[in-house]
């Protein structure tokens, strides 16, 4: 039991160390990016106001262009997903129609089977010969059944 706990503790320690290393590398990358931006900002401040405005506009154009490309990529993904979902919908609709058709066939077969059973029962009843006993109040029903 102690070995298992030691192994778990070592695994957790290793994961923690890896996470710390990852975070350190991210911090280092952010520091470098911040230094780069600070240098760009200082260089921008040394420029004339007209050039600063132009530089700001260029950065905004670059940012908007990148954002536009990201949005186009997202749009393409969504369109592909829409096409895929439409195809799946068509497939499922076909399956539903096939299922409904098969259910209709099953219902038809059941009706035929029931009619065959009724016919078989009627044939058995026709095999009787002789007199029939009935109550007076059942006479209209009996006459109707004989006619049909």
Automatic annotation (TrEMBL):
Keywords: Coiled coil
Ranges in coiled-coil conformation: 2-125
Keyword Coiled coil: yes
Protein name: MYO5B protein
Species per Swiss-Prot/TrEMBL record: Nothocercus julius
């Amino acid at each position: 039991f102690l070995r298992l706990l030691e192994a778990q503790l070592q695994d957790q320690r290793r994961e923690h160390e890896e996470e710390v290393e990852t975070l350190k590398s991210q911090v280092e990358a952010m520091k470098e990016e911040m230094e780069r931006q600070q240098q760009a900002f200082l260089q921008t401040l040394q420029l004339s106001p007209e050039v600063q405005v132009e530089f700001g506009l260029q950065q905004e154009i670059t940012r908007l262009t990148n954002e536009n490309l990201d949005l186009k990529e997202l749009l393409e993904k969504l369109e592909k997903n829409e096409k895929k979902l439409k195809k799946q919908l068509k497939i499922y609709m076909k399956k539903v129609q096939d299922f409904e058709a098969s259910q209709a066939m099953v219902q038809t077969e059941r009706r035929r089977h029931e009619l065959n059973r009724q016919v078989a029962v009627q044939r058995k009843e026709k095999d009787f010969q002789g007199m029939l006993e009935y109550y007076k109040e059942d006479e209209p029903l009996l006459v109707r059944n004989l006619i049909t």
